[in-house]
Structures are given as structure tokens and as C-alpha cells.
């Protein structure tokens, strides 16, 4: 199979691991004549032909690529063939290229700025998006992504709120999530979790 050239937010190791389904160590590669930009005023990057080079990375894991295809399809990206430079020389690779619905290039993109502003929110969005892998198509995911991103943003806002005061002494021990179900997901989403946790009587 062809190697996939990664750029932008997919170089964020936690996001790549979450989407790929396992830790991956990509190898470095460079794409000349292109740049990475903010997709308009959106929270994600896009590639475009431009002066300069993109310092990215290559992966060649079939299952990881299938999962990446699903995730990137949710943002309206598809694969395009490019030639990248590696330590072994030029190599034909595939890159996720923005479709017509992706906004035009904005300001030059920064991984550090993205991590500070949107990293946590995108990880929440990716967590929900990848829960649908194998259940719906990338086209269906693209239709759900606005709602997924809205819910992810709400989770970030909720974490910043002050927690209520504790009611008495809480039992020690961790809370374990045994099963997660999403019986309904349209504009709104219903999520059901089965939890296992300590009770006040010690059971």
C-alpha cells in the first residue's frame, strides 16, 4: 500500500494515536511546494500549494490508514498523490487533500497555537467520531461532525466551570466505565454509560 503523508493536527501524537487506534511512530518526510494554513476561520488546518516546504511524517499501517480515511472523510478530505522527500530519497505518497466544502486557506497554521486553542476540544471530537468507526460511512460522519464538534466544545467549557461542593466524605476508589452506548445521534446525541464505582457502604 502507499504511504500516507501526515501534516497539521495529525502530527499531534495524542490525536494520531486516538484516530489510528494504537501508538504509531511515523518517519519524517518533507513535501515541497506546499504549505499548511488554517481552513478559513475553522479550528483545523488545510494544505495548499505554496512556496516553501511542509515538514511532515509518513505512516504505512493498513488498519491505521483505514481509520484515518474515515476520520479525515468526516472533515471533507480525500487522498491525493504527491511526491515527498525522505532519508532514502523521493517517494510517491498520498496526502489528505481538502474538498470543495473545506474553507479557503487562511493564515499560516501553527501546531503550537492549535494545541493551545483547540487541542483538547479536537481530542473529545475525535473520541466520539472514532466510536462510529465501522458503524457509519465517512459521508455520514461528515454530516454529524458539526454536532460532534459542538458537543466537544461543550465538554471543554464544562471542565472550566467550578465543581459543586462535595456532599460529605466521598468513597475512595476509581470509577470504571464498562460500556458506552449511543442509542441516538442526530443533531443532539444521547450517550449511555454503565459505570462501576465504590458505594458509601464499601461495596
Keyword list:
six-stranded mixed sheet, alpha+beta, elongated, 203 residues, 4 helices, two-stranded antiparallel sheet, 32% helix
Structural class: alpha+beta
Spatially, the strands of the biggest sheet line up as 4-5-1-3-2-6
C-alpha-based Rg, rounded = 20 Å
Largest sheet: 6 strands, mixed
**Share of β-strand residues:** 35-45%
Low-confidence stretches: none
The chain-level mean pLDDT equals 90
The count of β-strands is: 8
User: Which term fits the overall shape?
Assistant: elongated
Q: Order of SSEs, N→C?
A: EHEEHEEEHHEE
State the end-to-end distance.
52 Å
Task: Please give a structural write-up.
There is one protein chain. 32% of the residues lie in helices and 36% in strands. The chain has a six-stranded mixed sheet with strand order 4-5-1-3-2-6. A two-stranded antiparallel ribbon has the order 7-8. It has helices at residues 13-20, 62-73, 111-131, 138-160, and strands at residues 3-6, 27-39, 45-59, 77-86, 89-98, 105-108, 176-185, 189-196. It is an alpha+beta fold and 203 residues long. A hairpin with a 2-residue loop joins β4 (77-86) and β5.
List the helices and strands and how they pair.
Elements: E1 3-6, H1 13-20, E2 27-39, E3 45-59, H2 62-73, E4 77-86, E5 89-98, E6 105-108, H3 111-131, H4 138-160, E7 176-185, E8 189-196
Parallel strand pairs: 1-5
Antiparallel strand pairs: 1-3, 2-3, 2-6, 4-5, 7-8
Amino acid at each position: 500500500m502507499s504511504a500516507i503523508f501526515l501534516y497539521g493536527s495529525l502530527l499531534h501524537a495524542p490525536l494520531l494515536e486516538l484516530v489510528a487506534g494504537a501508538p504509531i511512530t511515523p518517519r519524517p518526510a518533507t513535501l515541497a511546494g506546499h504549505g499548511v494554513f488554517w481552513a478559513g476561520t475553522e479550528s483545523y488546518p488545510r494544505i495548499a500549494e505554496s512556496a516553501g516546504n511542509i515538514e511532515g511524517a509518513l505512516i504505512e499501517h493498513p488498519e491505521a490508514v483505514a481509520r484515518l480515511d474515515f476520520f479525515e472523510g468526516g472533515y471533507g478530505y480525500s487522498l491525493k498523490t504527491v511526491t515527498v522527500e525522505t532519508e532514502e530519497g523521493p517517494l510517491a505518497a498520498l496526502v489528505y487533500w481538502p474538498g470543495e466544502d473545506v474553507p479557503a486557506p487562511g493564515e499560516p497554521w501553527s501546531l503550537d497555537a492549535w494545541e493551545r486553542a483547540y487541542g483538547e476540544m479536537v481530542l473529545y471530537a475525535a473520541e466520539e467520531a472514532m466510536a462510529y468507526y465501522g458503524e457509519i460511512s465517512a459521508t455520514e460522519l461528515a454530516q454529524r461532525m458539526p454536532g460532534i464538534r459542538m458537543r466537544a466544545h461543550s465538554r471543554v467549557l464544562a471542565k472550566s466551570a467550578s465543581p459543586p461542593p462535595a456532599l460529605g466524605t466521598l468513597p475512595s476508589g476509581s470509577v470504571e466505565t464498562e460500556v458506552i452506548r449511543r442509542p441516538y445521534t442526530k443533531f443532539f446525541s444521547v450517550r449511555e454509560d454503565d459505570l462501576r464505582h465504590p458505594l458509601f457502604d464499601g461495596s
